[in-house]
Amino acid sequence: MALDGWILDNSAAARKGDPVVGAQLAELAGSLYICPVAELEQLYSARSAEDYDRLQSELHAGFEIVPAPPDIFERALHLQRELAHHHGMWHRTPIPDLLIAETALYHGLGVAHVDRDFERIAEVRSLSIRRLG
Fold first, then answer.
1. Cβ distance 93 to 120 under 8 Å?
2. Would 1 be classed as within a structural domain?
3. How far apart are CA 2 and CA 18, in angstroms?
4. Where residue 33 sits, what CATH number does that domain have?
5. How confident is the model over 90-110, as pLDDT tens digits?
6. Does pTM top 0.85 for this prediction?
7. What is the CB-side half-sphere exposure of residue 125 using CA atoms within 13 A?
8. pLDDT reading at 1 higher than 60
9. Quick one: what percent of the chain has pLDDT higher than 90?
10. Which residue from 111, 128, 105 is spatially nearest to 8, judged by alpha carbons?
11. What is the Cα–Cα distance from 79 to 31, expressed in whole angstroms?
12. Least CB-packed of 17, 37, 117, 118 within 10 Å?
């Protein structure tokens, strides 16, 4: 079953303090999701064990977590190949972005981001993207 909304990429989540991005995220409230890779990316920035636990608690309270597809790595490899054949060096898109994009596609979600990599992916896949900022 396809969901309606956006997976929040860390590129946007990290800029929630920016007035423009923060306002746009507020507009999207209720339609934002995270996936395990996005959660890993956000938790990577924790400065202590206590901060990690606080961040994780906030993520779980504020967002529904959508699981990665069971064949996520095969999907990401296929996407990486498509990017390589679409335009030189586009296969060097960060691996977390490939995994997030494939999770979004699997669930019928878009990606809310502040990251050119998702714009590249959208050129080879029918990924809905919303650039914030």
1. yes
2. no
3. 31
4. 3.40.50.1010
5. 888 999 999 999 999 999 999
6. yes
7. 27
8. no
9. 91
10. 111
11. 25
12. 17
Q: For residue 78, what are the contacts with CB-CB under 8 A and spacing of at least 6?
A: none
Q: What tokens appear for 25 in the block?
A: 């995220």
Q: Hey, what are 26's tokens?
A: 């507020």
Tokens 């991005």 found at: 21
pLDDT at position 89 is 82
Let me know if residue 42 belongs to a domain. yes
Amino acid identity of residue 125, one-letter, is R
CB 37 within 8 A of CB 68: yes
Confidence at residue 3, expressed as pLDDT on a 0 to 100 scale: 77
Cα distance from N-terminal residue to C-terminal residue, the chain: 30
Whether residue 101 is contained in a domain is answered as yes
Q: How many domains does the chain have?
A: 1
Candidates 126, 82, 101; CA nearest to 37 is: 101
Q: DSSP string of 56-113? A: HHHHHHH-EEPPPPTTHHHHHHHHHHHHHHHSTTGGGS-HHHHHHHHHHHHHT-EEEE
